[in-house]
Amino acid sequence: MKGTSCNHDKMLGPCPKKVPIFGALSEEEILKVAKMAKHTQFKKGQLLLHEGEKSDRLFIVNKGQVKVSKFTIDGKEQILYILTSGEFFGELHLFNNEEVNNFSVYAIADTEICVITKDDIDRIMEANPEISIKLLKALTKRLAHTETLVQNLATKDPEVRIAHMILEFCQKFGTKKSDGILIELPITREEVASYVGVTRETISRKFSKFESLGLISQQGNKKLLVKDHQTLREYIH
After folding, report:
1. For 195-220, how does the pLDDT look when each residue is reduced to its tens digit (9 = 90+)?
2. I need a labelling partner for 65 at 20 to 30 A (CA). Which of 31, 58, 103, 189 fits?
3. Which CATH architecture fits 158-235?
4. What is the reported pTM?
5. Which residues in the chain belong to E strands, given as ranges?
6. Where are the domains of the chain?
């Protein structure tokens, strides 16, 4: 993978500064990590990592968004995560370089990635052991997210799955407005269906139902205004 050095961006700052696992580092140490990293640009729809391949790098999303997916035996996509600026993937390989990717990663917008090799990360962790603990905490949190996803997919009620997704997107992509929380949907309706494990038609029907109940307001295909956050929460309990 070719890339350019992760130079300090006066507007955005270096990639590692955005990542919580590097939060304990000083400004000088952050810049050292940034010098180890390489920037790579990806266009919307471009493949970053392929399921089944080996990797020895940590990938940090500097700008843009990516989706982490698996494909079922019958070729259906199941989206596991949507990652945005400051989030990362490839962390499993930092502890076991025999691991292969158990997912594929695609850019869902024009995206800039910071890449740090395992050897460089090993040196960083040796000098700053607390980073290892933070990485393990991040892994645990991601595992919990996957378990929640599995539980949601196991439920027979698509409304519960969709309500859970809307609440998740509120937290991650929402902006508070006077009349609710506005979500800029990071994925298409087809991808929303893949994330929740239902058909696009079911997404449309349930969004319309939630809208008729006054819980949300649809603003085109890419925006949702969540008007009744509390009632949506009651769906998932």
Report:
1. 888 899 999 999 999 999 999 999 98
2. 31
3. Orthogonal Bundle (1.10)
4. 0.78
5. 4-5, 38-42, 47-49, 57-63, 65-71, 77-84, 88-89, 104-107, 111-117, 174-177, 180-184, 216-219, 223-226
6. 4-146, 158-235
CATH fold for domain 4-146 = Jelly Rolls (2.60.120)
Which tokens hold the place of 130?
């607390």
The CA distance from 94 to 135, in Å, is 9
208, amino acid identity: S
- The continuous run of DSSP H or E covering 191 comes out as helix 189-196
- Tell me: the pLDDT tens digits for 136-158? 777 777 777 667 766 666 666 88
Q: Which amino acid appears at position 216 of this protein? A: I
φ, ψ (nearest 5 deg) of residue 87: -95, 165
Residues with Cβ within 8 Å of residue 192, at least 6 apart in sequence:
165, 185, 200, 203
